């Protein structure tokens, strides 16, 4: 298959570094080309945001990223009237900007957002691809290059906070997980500057701690945390201190669990 990516000239700027886990780049490209919205599922810190940044750069598209939280409303995405020196002026929100520019809008942790956010997304995620702006009376037709990408972490969702089928069934979905060991070593070494030989035991530890997810831990050690740990070691901190600060303390507040994690670290790292 000759992909569009091969046809697009390499951009002059350096792309955000991304090591693929499988065929996600080709799938993203097809979804973009066919104007399908995309859902990325996976644990925190496994590369979803980096992947979107990488792909947006590859296509030369503007990227508007929104970290969703429980106060985020539809108006935060679409826009609102603001007071400016006595006048009220309309200010586009990130979603509206992405639609107008024909770029990518990336909604990170979509389940955190308020209910009315999904209502805003519905007409954009079916074949109409429109964004009605009730306040201004406009109805924007999304250009072909516009793409909606959302992510969520199925791991720590409660029943109350999961994606409703009526919303999730509007997306093509890709499952993300931590990279295979050798790939993850390469990523951590590249991002932290620590040698691959020093990174390897940290990742062996990370893998052991990831197994505890769902028992004692809500989340396992992310690639992001291992990068933090490796960065601290590369900057001169002792390995034990770096492991405690970046791979154990962020995981739990429970003293007993922490003790257990420290023991696993000792047994793994020697
Ligand atoms: N496949 C990958 N290629 C390159 N870097 C990665 C990859 N996966 C994770 N990373 C690194 O891990 C960090 C955290 O990833 P991020 O994309 O922010 O995770 P998520 O959005 O899934 O929470 C990134 O900043 C990057 O340094
Ligand atoms: Mg992210």
Automatic annotation (TrEMBL):
Indicate yes or no for the key word ATP-binding: yes
Residues passing through the membrane, by range: none
Q: Where is the CbbQ/NirQ/NorQ C-terminal domain?
A: 184-267
User: What is an example of a GO molecular function annotated in this UniProt entry?
Assistant: ATP binding
Q: Where is the signal peptide?
A: none
Please report the stretch or stretches of sequence annotated as the ATPase dynein-related AAA domain: 37-171
Kindly state which keywords UniProt assigns to this record, in alphabetical order: ATP-binding, Nucleotide-binding
| UniProt similarity note | Belongs to the CbbQ/NirQ/NorQ/GpvN family.
Q: What name has this protein been given in UniProt? A: CbbQ/NirQ/NorQ/GpvN family protein
